[in-house]
Amino acid sequence: MNTIVQPMPRSVGRQIGRTALDWFPALAVFAIGIGAWQGLVTAFHVQEFLLPRPTSIAHAFWMQKSALWSEGIYTFKEALGGYALGSGLGIAVALVFAAWRPLAGAFMPYAVAANAIPIIAFAPIMNNWFGLLNPFSKMAIAAVLCFFPVMINTLRGLTSVHPSSIELMQSYAAGRLSLFRRVRIPNSLPYMFTGLKVATVLSMIGAIVGEYFGGPIHALGVKILNDSSYGNFTDAWAGIVMASLLGIVFYAVVALAERLTTSWHPSARAFQTE
Amino acid sequence: MSAVSLKGVTKQFSAGVVALDGIDLDVEPGEFVSLIGPSGYGKSTLLRIIGDLTKPTAGTAQVNGKPADRARRDHEYGIVFQDAVLYDWRTVAKNISLPLELLRWSRGRRNARVKDMLELVELTGFEGHHPWQLSGGMQQRVSIARALSFSPTLLLMDEPFGALDEMTRERLNSELLRIWQETSSTVVFVTHSIPEAVFLSTRVVVMSARPGRVAGVVDVDLPQPRTSTTREEPRFFELVTQVREQLAAAGAPLGETQEPALVEEPL
Amino acid sequence: MPRAAARVLLLPIGLAALWGFWEGYRWLGIREHWTWPFTVNDTNMPHLSTIWHAFGQPLQPDGPPLRHYLWHYSLFTGKEALAGFALGAMIGFLLAVVLAHSTVLRRGFLPYIVVSQTVPILAIAPMVVVGLGTKGVKPWVAVAVIAAYLTFFPVAINTLRGLHSPDPRSLELMRSYAAGRWKILWRLRVPASLPYVFSALKISATASVIGAIIGETPASLQGGLGYAIVNFNQYYSTQPANLWATIVACALLGITFFLAVVLLERLVLKRAPENIA
């Protein structure tokens, strides 16, 4: 039987090679960028306190690495707690909205409007409610920031099901619960992960900026703020590097989870051909 | 007892469009009946009324002597759409076993049946593949395997080969006939292709559109089993001409266009 | 149209429900001395009516009422946000246009655009403000730069996706007309990308307001909502209603920006925008 079958996934070696080639331009830009930064700052004798050299920042980072690490982890825990809370709630609400569509139609415009409110402005209130030193005050901010993107994306995934698919399940006299379990939920995974990836970034920002309005001294956001206020910009930049690294790792972990659970999705395959 | 019994089936959509007007049709067990007609909302809607995926505004539809909704709940039929509607996150084997899972078959029984089905559609060896790794024709074969997995006596097919090229289409036509005979099922088949309708069916029902009515019936007396040589026989051409003339009389324009899918929002 | 009518009705009902929930929680919490998740008392949860009245109270004896201050603060912050929004949107759009046409550049820069959002720009805010200040740049411009930074990412990412959205057949059609890259860009890619762009602009509208508010706080820019938050936060224990009133003002500013973009979308795209962001 002469049939056309698409090739099975490439061998691991070739995949790695291909990926390395994909990343080369990015690495090149990084190298050039850092080099230019270093060069220009030195050449123009830019004052250290305004824009430190990459080498100074690297040095400061290295010198304070253990302190930065513990401060970073403290803040990361706030972000993580808020992430879990906000994303969990977002997924739950999306499930409810998908099950009862009229509810979704009624509430959606208000949810969208609520998302237009600068949540960060609530940070001082959270501090007053839960206490400046209580990590929950920052978790609350992070949670609220994560809720909407996760909810919206998950809902979109739960409801964008091919009508024929619904008819198919109807032909099996399958109940709504079955439809949810076997069709809507698996279908929603790629969309949900889009939201979850965005939420990683938002949760970190929420935690750090929340600390900005006050927090314990051993938190990363507070440290960065204090360093900035006293003009120790080199140390502040080191703190920012730490924050960025944690954010990137967080994002990467979620992206990895996405790859593992949704390898069947077209977008995972399309990436190879892009 | 007829496999499918339609009496006075009428379907009017809220926009005032009368898709079907007083359809009377009986399909005997073991028949292969094609519904052919010009574009409109008729044929697919009729198929969906038989499958209780939409309700008629008037008239009754019975499957195997039961009302259509009972028949659906009793899993009396399998359905194949133009789009294979396979789930990307399931392997071929798991796609086929989907209805069996819903029927709460035990794992052993499911696996055995999936194996049989793959043999039936000649896809043994592809259990672990994912839908995107298969060609369009293969995907449709999986869809057919799934539809027959729980051995329904009735198979409803809505232009299943419409998206495939002519050669694949002809080959799948032969395979479908073989499967039909091996499973002794009844098939109601919607199509736009006159040669396909004549080649496959024991009876071709020609429908007019707007409103949809039965314009004529052509009994296809070609001998079974039908092979590719059947298409070259003079009698085949006579029957094709007969169907074409009936279609023209029913007001079909020359050349078909894609029938739009009108799906009312279920659930 | 019953659905639109239902939505309009839902607004006062929703507000009433919110009021009821707030006052109910407050009443119950004070009566039952709830301390979890937070202590319920007059300071933590003032009456909504108290907050409402605070708008009309003068801050200083014989001075103008609070709402007068909040109005000017909102304008001040709004100006920064708008400038940042416009700047960020332009940069994001242009960047996307450039990257859409060069795979190498895209592979080179896209990761950094993504990474740039993990950098807590708001913590760099004081450095930006001070640094630009020594070069003679007014503080509000620095804040606008921060707002622009938060805006450009969603716009760049979404525009890029939108520019690549036309299906290959449309592109082939254009090429069959011997249309060059420029023409394809302006006649096909850009119009196709507009829904995506607006989707991003809706996100950016909020982001630029947030950026402006937060950007003001480190420099303690007198005259903006960020300053007001910091200020009223200090006096929270004596005058909680003022901080709440300021938050209401922030919310109104954010929602106004958002609705403005929605209106613009409706005009440009001539169809009802998706409810979803």
How would you describe the overall organization of this protein?
The complex is a heterotrimer of chains A (274), B (267) and C (277). Helix content of chain A is 80%, strand content 0%. With 274 residues, chain A is mainly α. In chain A, helix 3 (65-99) crosses helix 6 (135-159). Chain A is globular. Chain B has helices at 42-50, 68-73, 92-96, 98-102, 107-120, 136-148, 166-183, 194-200, 234-249; strands spanning 4-12, 18-27, 32-36, 58-63, 66-67, 77-80, 154-158, 186-191, 203-208, 213-219. The longest helix of chain B has 18 residues, at 166-183. In chain B, the strands form two sheets. Chain B has a six-stranded mixed beta sheet with strand order 6-7-8-3-9-10, sandwiched between helices. In chain B, strand 1 and strand 2 (18-27) form a beta hairpin. Chain C has 277 residues and is mainly alpha-helical. Chain C has one domain (66-269): Orthogonal Bundle (MetI-like fold). Chain C is globular, with a radius of gyration of 23 Å.
Key words describing this protein structure:
heterotrimer; A: 274 residues; mainly alpha; MetI-like fold; 2 domains; globular; disordered N terminus; disordered C terminus; C: 277 residues; 77% helix
Write the layout of secondary structure elements.
The complex is a heterotrimer of chains A (274), B (267) and C (277).
Chain A: H1 12-43, H2 54-63, H3 65-99, H4 101-115, H5 123-130, H6 135-159, H7 163-171, H8 176-212, H9 220-229, H10 233-261, H11 266-273
Helix pairs in contact in A: 2-10, 3-4, 3-6, 3-8, 3-10, 5-6, 6-8, 8-9, 8-10, 9-10
Chain B: E1 4-12, E2 18-27, E3 32-36, H1 42-50, E4 58-63, E5 66-67, H2 68-73, E6 77-80, H3 92-96, H4 98-102, H5 107-120, H6 136-148, E7 154-158, H7 166-183, E8 186-191, H8 194-200, E9 203-208, E10 213-219, H9 234-249
Parallel strand pairs in B: 3-8, 3-9, 6-7, 7-8
Antiparallel strand pairs in B: 1-2, 1-4, 4-5, 9-10
Helix pairs in contact in B: 5-6, 8-9
Chain C: H1 2-31, H2 48-54, H3 66-100, H4 103-116, H5 121-134, H6 139-163, H7 168-176, H8 181-219, H9 225-234, H10 240-269
Tertiary shape of chain A: globular
- CATH homologous group name of the largest domain in chain A: MetI-like
Mean pLDDT over the residues of chain A: 82
CATH architecture type of the largest domain in chain A: Orthogonal Bundle
Secondary structure tally: strands of chain A: 0
Biggest β-sheet description of chain B: 6 strands, mixed
- Counting structural domains of chain A, the number is 2
Q: Describe the biggest sheet of chain A? A: none
State the end-to-end CA separation of chain B: 32 Å
Instruction: Give the oligomeric state.
Output: heterotrimer
Low-pLDDT runs of 5+ residues of chain A are: 1-10, 269-274
Q: Which percent band covers the strand fraction of chain A?
A: under 5%
End-to-end distance of chain A, in Å? Answer: 32 Å
What is the percentage of strand-forming residues of chain B? 15-25%
Q: Which stretches of chain B are low in confidence, meaning pLDDT under 50 for 5 or more residues running?
A: 254-267
Question: What is the helix/strand order of chain B?
Answer: EEEHEEHEHHHHEHEHEEH
Strand order of the largest sheet of chain B: 6-7-8-3-9-10
Given the C-alpha coordinates, what overall shape of chain B results? globular
Secondary-structure element series of chain A? HHHHHHHHHHH
Report helical residue fraction of chain B: 25-40%
